[in-house]
Amino acid sequence: MNNTNNISAEERIKAAARKVFHQKGYAATRTRDIAEEAGINHAMLNYYFRSKEKLFQIVMTETMTQFFRGVGVILNDETTSLDEKIERVVANYIDLLLEEPDLPTFILNEVRPNPQFFVEQSPIGEALTHSVLARQYAEAVAQGRITEPNLMHAVLNVIGLVIFPFVAKPMLSAITNLPEEQYKALMLQRKTLIPQWIKAILSLPKTGD
Q1: Whole-angstrom distance between the N-terminal and C-terminal Cα of the chain?
Q2: Model-level pTM?
Q3: Do 127 and 75 form a contact (C-beta atoms < 8 A)?
Q4: CB of 81 within 8 A of CB of 40?
Q5: In whole angstroms, what is the distance from residue 206 CA to residue 176 CA?
Q6: Which residues lie closer than 8 Å to 162 by C-beta, 6 or more apart?
Q7: What is the pLDDT of residues 96-123, one digit of tens each?
Q8: CATH topology of domain 3-56
Q9: Nearest 10 degrees: Cα torsion 168, 63, 197, 150
Q10: CB-based contacts of 71: which residues, under 8 Å, 6+ apart?
Q11: Any idea where the domains of the chain sit in the sequence?
C-alpha cells in the first residue's frame, strides 16, 4: 500500500475522529460515525486503528498538546511583563477556542472521570509554579502592586473568564438568539476586556502606565 495514501488516510481518520469525539464525546461516538465522517468504510478504519479506545487515546493526547501548546513559552518569556503575559495568554486561548469551540467541553467531560490522564498529559501545573510569570507575580505582591498573594486566584479568574463563554455558548445562543458573527465579535472584544478586568481585580497597572 502506497505510503502517501497511508498517511493521507490516517490523517483523514484522525481529523474525523477529532471532530466526532469533540462533538459527541467518547461514550456516544461509534467507530462507524468516524468512518462516515472520514468518507471511508468501516473496515479501512479498523485496518489503521484497531479500536475506538486506541483512536480516542491518540485524539485526546493531541488535543491536550494543542490546548497547552505555546503557553509555556508565554509564561517563561523574560522579555515581557506580567500584564503582557496575561494579555498574551488570554489572546492565545480565545483565538484557539474560536477555531475549536468544542474543545473545552470535550476536555472537561473526558478528564472528569480520569483526572490522572490530565495530570500526565499536562505539565502546566509544575510549569506555572516555576515560571517567570509566578516570579513576577510574587515580586508584584512584595512591591504592593498586587493585593491578592495567591496566584491561583488570578489563574482561576482567567480560566473562568476565557473558557466559560465557550462552554455556555449553547445556552447563551438559546437565551439571546445571538447570531454567530456577533458571538465571535463578542469573544474578540473579550481579548481586550479580560486582561483589563484581571488587572483591575489585581490592582495591576495597565501596560505603559
Answers
A1: 62
A2: 0.80
A3: yes
A4: no
A5: 32
A6: 90, 93, 94, 97, 190, 194
A7: 999 999 888 888 888 887 777 666 666 6
A8: Arc Repressor Mutant, subunit A (1.10.10)
A9: 110
A10: 89, 92, 124, 127
A11: 3-56, 69-202
